[in-house]
Amino acid sequence: MQKYDKESFIKSIDSISREIKKIFPDRKYFEFEYVFPLSEFSTVTHRQNGDDYVIDKYDYFQGSESWGHPAHDIMIKDDDKNLIDDSTGKYVNVVSMSGGIVFSIDTSWKSGSRLRGGKYVKIYDVTYDRIFYYSHLDSVFVFPGDIVKPGDKIGYVGRTGRRTILPDGKTHLHIAMLKLENGYPKPVEIKKLIFRTKEKYFNAGKNK
Ligand SMILES: [Zn+2]
Which residue from 113, 152, 159, 203 has the least number of CB within 10 angstroms? Predict the structure, then answer.
């Protein structure tokens, strides 16, 4: 992995986020407008019933060798592991939970690559200084600089990433939220947000 200076990286995230806030359009999205990060699925399950968030010795700057699991895994119904929801016969959309701007993407992953997250999207939620990280995607439909609102499609659930493609791995979305503290991304537990938005999704009958 390429070495970089952590302090200067934090400073540049801090200044970039300030610049983005200055030029970002007026429309802000708030937490009550957040949506469940998947759409057009039949059912989903949560790793350890949603108690898979482990902060441990995690640090954002550990890269692909990081410890802990400061995130949530949401598994789709895909017993044959062909990425298609077994009940709907369709790919499952990954959608942005929040509003914001696409901060970075990586679509370079190929089978055998050591990159742990596979294909991913990071979205900067300008309203709350949060970064959302969506990984193991199959396809990515957004580009850095794209402005998104809650519910905008950003990719398909996939099986990319160092361990996700192993035969016993379930097809899932790995989602994390990090709060920027003066440019330093610190993970936050979002189990409640995930379950609240899922309830909203099913109450709206969106799975029909
Ligand atoms: Zn995960």
Answer: 203
Measure 74 CA to ligand 1 centroid, in angstroms. 8
3-state SS, 25-68, equals CCCCCCHHHCCCCEECCCCEEEHHHHCCCECCCCCHHHHHHCCC
Distance 174 CA to ligand 1 centre (A): 4
User: pTM score, two decimals?
Assistant: 0.92
What residues are paired with 134 via a beta bridge?
121, 175
For residue range 8-41, what is the model confidence (pLDDT) as tens digits? Answer: 889 998 999 999 888 887 788 999 999 999 999 9
Domain with residues 6-203, CATH architecture: Distorted Sandwich (2.70)
The structure tokens 């992995």 sit at 1
Q: How many alpha carbons fall within 13 Å on the CB side of residue 164?
A: 29
Ligand 1 centre distance from Cα of residue 134 (Å): 10
